[in-house]
């Protein structure tokens, strides 16, 4: 059977060998890339071992230097013997040789491959591609690529640090804080002797007398001192919720032209159920009302509880009850007519004036009825005020529907310490024997 030649045979070009060479070159490149990655992984591991050996070698060197000193005491015992020291020296030499060998093994370049064509590093955009193209050990290659990526991240991205803890501001103790006006007063320069005698409350009430005028103030009728904190002689301030009218309004004739009820007044402070004479004080600045922040941060809770109990007490003074009623239950305002025809007018009133007069009379009568009803309801509500109601008013907002309650400062400046007055009280109390002991 004859063979037929293909007319296109003259154009035939063999390509099998070329394709085979390309495949061989590709596999060689893949192998070199894999070897580079393995060498980088081994290089990183050797670097870690070198660091650990350096630390161990450094500690051993320090130990050897100490042992070589002539004045170093060698203690032979269960934990350190001559054989142990010799073994430590041999271990130090062994580790030194091992460290030198590891350095020589780690320092050669990764270019020293079998064929000299290996690259020093793999670009980041080819690492995944190289890992997927190696068919002989894909798991090992992926682990190497992951190791390289993690090392790069550790170098470029520092470990996150937690945010700093917020600073906790501890409110200052009320004892260490003073109202601003008190800090502006000059200290009392008078001489205060060591006065360790205290006075029984009944003794002061019996000998000095007086009537309770406002919280912390007793007014003594007659031309004499009236009894209105910190050691004696120190400036201070006391708190109060309401003010009674001034004693001068009711006993104006008892005061001299140059005297009043708020200057150079003896002050006694109750300490352990007995009174201590602190000196003579004056109120040189009128009172200031505290705001909510000062009430919450500077006024101790025991002071708030004291005032809540005092204001809610059924035995409180009548003027205190009246002040509570006016504060918490506001009196209604008059909104009626204010115009009427004059009574002494000689001309005949016009019709319009008569209408205005009649309207004003009706509005006044209506307002009086409202006041009567308000007074009856306000008295009942005031009698039902409890301690918790006062505490809630201390914490209420200034814009709440129920009125908030704030305390007032009464500034007290020490102006004198009367030794003759103090000695007189001590003498009078001694005469009573054990009655006021």
TrEMBL record:
Domain DUF6697 positions: 199-427
InterPro entries cross-referenced by the UniProt entry: DUF6697
Region (Disordered): 106-176
Compositional bias annotation for Polar residues: 109-123, 132-143
Taxonomy, superkingdom: Eukaryota
Protein's name according to its UniProt entry: DUF6697 domain-containing protein
